[in-house]
């Protein structure tokens, strides 16, 4: 038949489905893809390429031996040949794309090549230290990695944040990427920052519904010293997280009434709680959200709860 799909096309389509895997569900998707693709010798290589792309796009967490803090697999940490950089520990590692375990760990100091910029290392480390404290307080399951790529024509510090969960019939991921443009003379200079926050949630009990959302931000900070820059960048990201949380809340009521009608699916009223406590900046009061699949909670005199797909509002002391 002229319309029959070739083995190569079937493998390509199957591998592309891996890129659509919900948070922490790649293994399940890969198993299903192999069943759908059938006995196809081409599928393994294409799946591996998709898993590599997925790992970098979703900034998955990995644990290096002897480390108490996870690192993120990212585009800026990719060294080629299956190896990645952990900028915090100054080590390179090889990633198993199926199990997300690491091997072949070796030292890689800032060297103006794969190890990152020597000049920007104090500033990079100060930003990472400040954001690590922020993550411990507000994203218990999260991780942050900060890179200072060695590029003489374009000095940047790039920040990645990721937090995800998979429990019972629901999963979710919060991730963000921030870029700080660094002038030639950094000390005392104004640095332009930009970034994007993305969330994805998935519920597959009595239905199959996903929520994808993103928001972009811009800000500027003054690099008076590495420590001050670290605090300023952390404060700006805190404000952006707060603004995004409020933006989500302003749309949940409308979504809760429309989405069930669009999907034709009655969703179970089940909540999964992930604590996210962010000290609200004085000019950016944080509105706590309580969302089906993912719950964000912050200390505040009043607490507003929004339940995705089944929306309720309440006010109570915390």
Automatic annotation (TrEMBL):
GO terms for cellular component: cortical cytoskeleton; F-actin capping protein complex. GO terms for molecular function: actin filament binding. Keywords: Actin capping, Actin-binding. InterPro entries: CapZ_alpha (IPR002189), CapZ_alpha/beta (IPR037282), CapZ_alpha/beta_2 (IPR042276), CapZ_alpha_1 (IPR042489). One of its GO terms (biological process) is actin cytoskeleton organization. Transmembrane segments: none annotated. SUPFAM superfamilies: Subunits of heterodimeric actin filament capping protein Capz. The keyword Coiled coil does not apply. Belongs to the F-actin-capping protein alpha subunit family. F-actin-capping proteins bind in a Ca(2+)-independent manner to the fast growing ends of actin filaments (barbed end) thereby blocking the exchange of subunits at these ends. Unlike other capping proteins (such as gelsolin and severin), these proteins do not sever actin filaments. Heterodimer of an alpha and a beta subunit. This is F-actin-capping protein subunit alpha.
């Amino acid at each position: 038949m002229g319309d029959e799909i070739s083995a190569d096309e079937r493998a390509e389509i199957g591998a592309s489905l891996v890129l659509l895997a919900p948070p922490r569900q790649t293994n399940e998707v890969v198993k299903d893809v192999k069943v759908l693709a059938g006995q196809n010798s081409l599928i393994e290589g294409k799946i591996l390429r998709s898993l590599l792309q997925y790992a970098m796009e979703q900034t998955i967490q990995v644990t290096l031996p002897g480390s108490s803090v996870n690192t993120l697999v990212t585009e800026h940490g990719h060294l080629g040949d299956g190896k990645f950089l952990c900028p915090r520990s100054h080590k390179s590692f090889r990633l198993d794309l199926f199990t997300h375990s690491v091997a072949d760990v070796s030292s890689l100091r800032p060297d103006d090549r794969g190890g990152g910029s020597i000049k920007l290392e104090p500033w990079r480390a100060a930003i990472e230290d400040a954001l690590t404290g922020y993550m411990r307080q507000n994203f218990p399951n999260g991780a942050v990695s900060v890179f200072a790529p060695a590029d003489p024509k374009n000095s940047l510090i790039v920040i990645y944040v990721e937090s995800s969960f998979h429990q019972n019939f629901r999963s979710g991921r919060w991730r963000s990427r921030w870029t700080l443009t660094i002038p030639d003379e950094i000390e005392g200079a104004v640095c332009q920052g930009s970034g994007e926050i993305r969330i994805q949630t998935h519920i597959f009990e009595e239905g199959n519904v996903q929520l994808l959302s993103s928001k972009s931000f811009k800000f500027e900070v003054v690099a008076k010293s590495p420590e001050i820059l670290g605090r300023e960048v952390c404060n700006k990201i805190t404000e952006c997280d707060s603004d995004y949380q409020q933006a989500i809340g302003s749309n949940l009521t409308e979504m809760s009434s429309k989405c069930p009608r669009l999907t034709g699916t009655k969703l179970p009223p089940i909540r999964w709680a992930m604590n996210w406590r962010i000290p609200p900046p004085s000019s950016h009061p944080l509105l706590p959200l309580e969302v089906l699949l993912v719950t964000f909670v912050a200390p505040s005199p009043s607490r507003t709860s929004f339940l995705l797909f089944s929306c309720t509002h309440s006010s109570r002391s915390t």
